[in-house]
Amino acid sequence: AAGATPESTQEFIVEVASGTFVSRAMVFFFDPEGLDDGDRWQAFAAPLLLARSTTGNPFLNLGTLYDSDVFWQFDRAGFPDGIGVPLALLHEVARSREHEYFVTGSISEDDTGKTLEVSIYQVSPLQMTEQARFTGADLYASVDQARTFVQDALMPDTDDATSISQYPVEEALSADEEALKTFIEASNAWLM
Questions:
Q1: N or C: which end of the chain has fewer CB within 10 A?
Q2: How does strand 23-27 pair with strand 60-64?
Q3: Contact 122, 129 (CB under 8 A)
Q4: CA of 123: how far to CAs of 88, 117, 157, 163, 181, in Å?
């Protein structure tokens, strides 16, 4: 740069994960199994919290329908809210976005708390690789368990795994459930 002297120049070294070591997955909306209409927003919030809470992980890239331009395919196929989409269409969308994996799930609630059932599919060849169920006191606790499961399943074996930034799921968007609900409702109004 003009006027730069050796004393005024700083060198920055940035370590970036190689593309061959980054797992890419699309996280689709979860099915709201038995949730009443007032809690249905959580079927959209859970995948978004899951994806956003992994942003500090350089080895994992989780996208959602809020991040992409493919939602119109669901609407055109008769799924205007992106819920209950057949596996074949989910697979096609993940493949068209060049993801290696996709994540589906369901969310339900009972006296023990929120339960997420999470399935991970490999895109090519199409096959379910992992499935698990997590119950937590609330949405955040359940998503936190699911995040650990997804990271363990999709991350490459690396010595750097212990240095990955982890922060509470509540910090991914908002710890205030009403604020999160409002954000999801506004995002859905924009998306749908």
A1: N
A2: parallel
A3: yes
A4: 11, 19, 20, 28, 31
- Which amino acid makes up residue 140? Y
Alpha helix segments (H runs only) across 61-138 = 71-76, 87-96
d(CA 48, CA 29): 8
pLDDT digits (tens, 9 = 90+) for 126-155: 999 999 999 999 999 999 999 999 999 998
Cα angle: 124, vertex 130, 133; to 5 degrees: 145
pLDDT digits (tens, 9 = 90+) for 44-74: 999 999 999 998 888 899 999 998 889 999 9
Helix (H, G, I), strand (E, B) or coil at 116: strand
Q: Check: CB of residue 120 under 8 Å from CB of residue 147.
A: no
| 32 beta partners | 107
Token pair for 73: 């395919």
Q: What residues contact residue 56 under an 8 Å CB cut-off, 6+ apart?
A: 164, 165, 166, 167
Q: Give me the residues paired with residue 135 across strands.
A: 115
Give the residue from 91, 85, 149 showing the smallest Cα distance to 125. Answer: 91
Type and span of the H or E element at 27: strand 23-27
Give pTM, 2 decimals: 0.85
The CA distance from 184 to 190, in Å, is 10
